[in-house]
Amino acid sequence: MPSIFDAHAPAQPPKPQGFAPPLVIESSTAQFVTDVIEASRQGPVIVDFWAPWCGPCKTLGPALERAVTRMNGAVRMVKINVDENQALAGQFRIQSIPTVYAFLDGKPVDGFMGALPESQIKTFVERLAGDTGAALEDLLAQAQAFLDEGAVDDAIDLFQQALTLDPAHGGAMAGILRCQMALGDVEAVREALAELPPALANHADIAAVRATLELADQTAGASADVRRLQAQVDANPDDHQARLDLALALFGAGDPEGAGEQLLESIRRDRTWNDAAARQQLLKFWEALGPTHPATVQGRRRLSSILFA
Fold first, then answer.
1. Smallest Cα–Cα separation from 48: which of 111, 1, 5, 90?
2. 268 pLDDT exceeds 80?
3. CATH architecture of the domain formed by 222-289+297-307
4. Is the dihedral of CA 289, 294, 300, 305 positive or negative?
5. What backbone torsions phi and psi does residue 81 show, to the nearest 5 degrees?
6. Which of 25, 177, 194, 228 shows the smallest number of beta carbons within 10 Å?
7. Which ranges of 107-196 would DSSP assign to H, the alpha helix?
C-alpha cells in the first residue's frame, strides 16, 4: 500500500472509547478541528479528500464507508470535498485525489493516495481500529498472493507492513526471505538467517526457508542430469543412490511431485537403505514446500500407505 507517511499507525493504538453514529460524516474547513483533530483524541479518524468529478473517488469512498461501518464505532470517517474546501486541501498539500489521511491523538499517523482494492482498504481500517489480528492475516494473505503471482515487490511491501504490526512474526519474516530468494538475492537470505534471534530462527516458516535454501544449494545444476539419471534408474530400479539423485534433480527442475514419487518408490523397495536416506530427503522436501503444498499432502498419504501396508 503506498503510504504518505514514513510510519504506520501504532500496532496497538489506545483503545478508543467508541464513536456514536453517524460514523461517516461530511465536514469542512470550519469544522475540521472539531470533527477531526479533537475527535481523533477519542479514536482513529479517517479523512477522505475527494471531489464529485473524481472517478476513483466514487469507488474508494463507498469501500471506505463499508469498512468503517463494520468496525462498529471503533473508527470514524470524515469526508472533505476539495472543491468546496480548497484552503484546507492546500494546507494538507493535496496534489491528487483520492487522498486519505488517518488521525489519532490529534496527529496524522497513516495514509495513502489513489484507489486501493477493497481487501487492502479493509486491512487499513482494521489496523487503525486496533484489530491487528485480522489486519495481519489479511496482509499476509495478500502478500502471499502477490508472491504466488510473481509480483515480488508488492509482496515485500505487504510482508514489511505485517512486520510493523508484529515485529516477531515468523511468517512475515519468512515471507520477506522468500521474496529475496525469488529476486535471486540468496546471500542476503543467508546473512539474515544467520542473524535471526532464536525465537524467530526456530519458527516453522523460517525453517522452511532454510530448508529451501539448502535444497537450492543441493540441487544447483542437477536438473541437467535428469535424463541420464532416469535412464540409470530405468536400467536398475534398485539403484537407490541414482533414484535419490534423480529426485534431487527433479526437485531442482521444478517438479516436486516427480521428485517425491522417486523417493516414495525407493522407500517402497527398501525403506532402510542408507539409514532411511530416501525418507529423510522426502521430509526435507516437504519442509521446504510447506504442509499445504499438494506434493506434501499427497506424499504424506502415500508414505502412510507404504509404511503401514
1. 111
2. yes
3. Alpha Horseshoe (1.25)
4. negative
5. -80, 110
6. 194
7. 118-129, 132-149, 152-165, 170-182, 186-195
Rounded to 5°, the CA angle 278-281-283 comes to 110
Identical fold between 132-202 and 222-289+297-307: yes
Cα 62 from Cα 267, distance rounded (Å): 58
Sheet strand arrangement including 107-113: 24-26, 76-81, 45-50, 99-104, 107-113
Give pLDDT tens digits for 152-182: 998 998 898 888 777 788 899 999 999 998 8
Provide the pLDDT confidence category of residue 20 given band limits of 50, 70 and 90. Answer: confident
Q: For residue 63, what pLDDT band results from cuts at 50, 70 and 90? A: very high
The three cell numbers locating residue 150: 510473481
Q: Where are the alpha helices (DSSP H) in 167-225?
A: 170-182, 186-195, 198-201, 204-219
pLDDT score at 222: 63
Looking at residues 279-305, what average pLDDT do you find? 88
Q: What is the pTM of this model?
A: 0.54
For residue 118, how far is the Cα from the chain centroid?
16
Are 297 and 304 in contact by the 8 Å Cβ rule? The answer is no
How many angstroms from the chain centroid is the CA of residue 25?
33
Contact between residue 112 and residue 124 where contact means Cβ atoms under 8 Å apart: yes
Q: Which residue has the cell 516436486?
A: 256
Half-sphere exposure of 96 (CA within 13 A, CB side): 7
Q: Which residues are catalytic?
A: 54, 57
Q: Which fold has domain 132-202?
A: 1.25.40
Determine the length of the chain. Answer: 309
Q: Where are the domains of the chain?
A: 24-129, 132-202, 222-289+297-307
Q: 80-84, 137-141, 143-147: which has the minimum mean pLDDT?
A: 137-141
CATH of domain 24-129: 3.40.30.10
The model's confidence at residue 70, banded by pLDDT at 50, 70 and 90, is confident
